[in-house]
Amino acid sequence: MDGAEKQIEPAIGGNVTFDPLAAALPVDEPAIREALDCDTGEFVDVKAWIGGQRYEELIAQRVSIRERLSKNPRFRCSLCSVPVYLVANQFKHFFFRHITEDGSCPAETRSPLSRDEILARKYDGVRESEPHKRIKALIMRSLSADPSFSEILSERQWRSSHDERSRRQPDVQATRPMGRTAFEVQLSTTFLDVVAGRRSFYRQEDALLVWVMGKFDPDYRRLTTDDLLFTNNSNILVVDEETATLSEAVRRFHVRCHFRRPAREGDRLTDRWESRVIPFSELTCEKESQRCWYFDYDRQASAIRAEIDKELQERERATLDALRSELLSFWLSRKPNAAPDKNEVRAWTALREALSERGVSLPSSPDEDSGFIALMNGVASAKEGKPVGWNFKHLVEVAHRIADGYPQHVVAFGHAARLFKRDEMLAEQDRTGKWKRRSAAIGASLRNGQPDFAPDPASILLVDFLMPGTKAKLEKINLAYVPAVSSVVTAS
Ligand SMILES: [Zn+2]
Q: Model pTM?
C-alpha cells in the first residue's frame, strides 16, 4: 500500500497536469482487466470503467475506494476475489492493484486459466458482493420465520449422496416436508454453465434447486435472466425486504413471483407480465425438471396455441368448402361448347388464383385441357347423378367415356361414384354387365401394379381438393406401379 502512495505522489506533484474535466485514462494493458463491483454485484471492464469517467470524478472515487479497502471493499479482482484499489502510473494513467500481492493471482502471474475455471472463480467472487449477501440474509430471515423449514444452513457444503468427491455449496439450504432444498441467489451475472451444472447435481440428489433474485424488471432483462426464466415455466422468484417482513409477520415463507400470463390477440399469442406475493408452499415444485413455479405458463400458452391452430384450420376448411362449391357450380352452369364470356373469365381467374395459393393448379381457361374437362365432368356427373358436360343420358356412359378416353381419371371417377353413392345407379344402368366386367378388370390392373389406369400425378391435388381425403389413396396406387415400370425397364 505504501509503495503505491510513493508511486503516485511524485506523479501528482510532477509535470503531468491533467484537465480535471477530461476523460480519465486507463493504462494500455492492465493486469487486472475485470473487477467485481461489490456494491452492484456486476463485473466491470476496468478500462471501460476508468475511461468512462472524468478525471476529477475518478480521483474522488479513488479516495473512497481506498477508504473502504480493508473493511468493506468496493472492488475485488474477478479472478482471485482479493480487494483491489485504484492507482496511477507517472503519466496519470490508472489501473487496479491487489491489496496484497503474494503472487497467487492468475491476473498478476499471467498463469492461464480455462474458461470453466474463470467462470467458477468469478461466480465464487460474486458471493462477496453486497447484493448477494443482502439477498442471502433475506432468504435466511424468511426461512427461519417459517416452522415448516428446518436445518437451515448458509454457505455449507452439500455432499453428493452418490459420489464422495462431488459437492456443492449452495447459498442457503433447508429441509421442508417435500425434502431438501437448495436456494441460490441469482444475480444478473450468474452464468449459464454454472446454472446447468447445478441443475443436474440437485436432480441426482433428488433435491430441488430454487433460484432467487433480489429484484426483477421484465422490461430490462439480461440473457442470463432469460436462461432461468424460460427454463422455469416463465416464472421468476424474488425475495425482497417486503416479502421477508411478511414471511416473519405470518411465520410462513413468502416470495414474490413474476410470471408471464399468455393471452390471445387475434390469431397471435401475446403475454403480459404479472406479479404476486404468495406462500412458497403454493408453488409447484418439480424435481425432475428442477422447476419451481406459481403460474403454469407453458400449459396455458399451449392451450391458446392449440385453440388458435384449431380455428385457423376450421377457417381454412370453410374456405376450401366454399371454393369447392364455387368450382362445381361454375362447372354446372358452364356451356360446354362455347367460349367463356366475360363474367365466366373473371370468375375463373378468381377461382384459379384462390386455388393456386393452396397449391392446386387449374388450367388458364376452363376449356383448354380435355383431360381436365373429363375429370371435372366425371366428378360433377357423379355428384349430380346425371351426365354433366357430355351429351349422354346415363351416368354409366360417363364411366365408359372416362375409361376409354381418360384412363388416368378413372380412379378419381370411382371415388366420386362412391362418395356420392352412385354405385347402385351405375349397376342399374349397366344392363349388359359391361361396366361391371370393366371395373373388375380395372381393379385387377391396379392391384397388379400396372400403369394403365394409374392416376395422373399432376391431378392428385385437384382431385383431393374436389374430394378431400383422396390424396393418400391415389398416391398409394402410383407408388405401387412405379416398381412395375422399373422392372419392365430393367428386363429390356
Ligand atoms: Zn486477482
A: 0.70
For ligand 1, the distance from its centroid to the CA atom of residue 47, given in whole angstroms, is 16
Compute, in angstroms, the gap from residue 49 CA to the centroid of ligand 1.
17
Report residue 379: phi and psi, to 5°. -65, -45
Å from CA of 98 to ligand 1 middle: 6
129-295 CATH fold: Trna Endonuclease; Chain: A, domain 1 (3.40.1350)
Tens digit of each residue's pLDDT (9 = 90 or more) over 333-369: 988 877 888 989 999 999 999 999 989 999 999 988 9
Residue ranges, comma separated, of all CATH 3.40.1350 domains in the chain are 129-295
Distance 477 CA to ligand 1 centre (A): 75
Quote the ligand 1 centre to 5 CA distance (angstroms). 20
Cβ pair 103, 142 in contact under 8 A = no
CA of 459 to the centre of ligand 1 (A): 74
Residue in the structure block whose three cell numbers are 342399374: 428
Q: What separation in angstroms does the CA of 318 have from each of 180, 289, 323, 349, 351? A: 55, 41, 9, 20, 15
Q: What is the DSSP letter of 53?
A: S
Cα separations in angstroms, 21 against 17, 18, 26:
12, 9, 15
Q: Count Cβ atoms below 10 Å from residue 200 Cβ, excluding itself.
A: 11
